[in-house]
Design a protein that fits this description.
The protein is of the alpha+beta class. It has one domain (about 1-130): RutC-like (60s Ribosomal Protein L30, Chain: A), CATH 3.30.1330.40. About 20% of the residues lie in helices and about 30% in strands. The protein has helices spanning about 50-65, 85-95, and strands spanning about 1-5, 20-25, 25-35, 75-80, 105-110, 120-130, 145, 150-155. The strands form three sheets. Strands 3-6-4-5 form a four-stranded mixed beta sheet. A two-stranded antiparallel ribbon has the order 1-2. It has a two-stranded antiparallel ribbon with strand order 7-8. Helix 1 runs parallel beside helix 2. It is globular.
């Protein structure tokens, strides 16, 4: 369970986010930066902030599902963008994936992301209730070759 709140002496939240949340019991799930890559690591929606935001949130949604989580379990987001153009698109897309009270949020503009065609990256923190939580299966970690300046999975 989460309950949104707004401090009287702090600027009012606007758009699709909450200023603060009180979070009930459950399992805390932290997601590393998700971007607009499909399952083959191809950029979805080159040059299109709305399409990239949708893919990024779909990736977050899929990652949460692994442990029994849902998008409304997300309590905090940090969004990194390479351009401030398309902020309305990001907020519109967020309302497709979240309902009030919206997650607390931070937005940061950065010079670039790991791949030049990416416009957005989002990290998420969720609290998955105990009754839905499923422990993920252990998996082998891939190693990466960054000798050419890229992130290439070794076979």
């Amino acid at each position: 369970m989460k309950t949104g709140f707004q401090a009287a002496d702090v600027w009012r939240a606007f758009g699709s986010h909450s200023m603060g949340l009180v979070v009930g019991s459950g399992r805390q799930v932290l997601l590393g930066g998700q971007v607009a890559w499909d399952d083959q690591r191809h950029v979805v929606g080159i040059g299109d902030m709305r399409a990239q935001a949708q893919q990024t949130f779909r990736n977050i949604q899929a990652s949460l599902a692994v442990v029994g989580g849902e998008m409304d379990d997300v309590v905090s987001l940090v969004t990194y963008v390479t351009t401030l153009k398309g902020l309305k698109d990001i907020h519109d897309v967020r309302t497709e994936f979240f309902s009030p009270p919206y997650p607390v949020s931070t937005l940061v503009q950065v010079a670039a992301l790991v791949e030049p065609n990416l416009l957005i990256e989002i990290t998420a923190t969720a609290i998955v209730p105990e009754d839905r939580y499923r422990a993920p299966e252990a998996m082998a970690m891939d190693s990466f070759d960054v000798s050419d300046g890229g992130f290439n999975i070794k076979n």
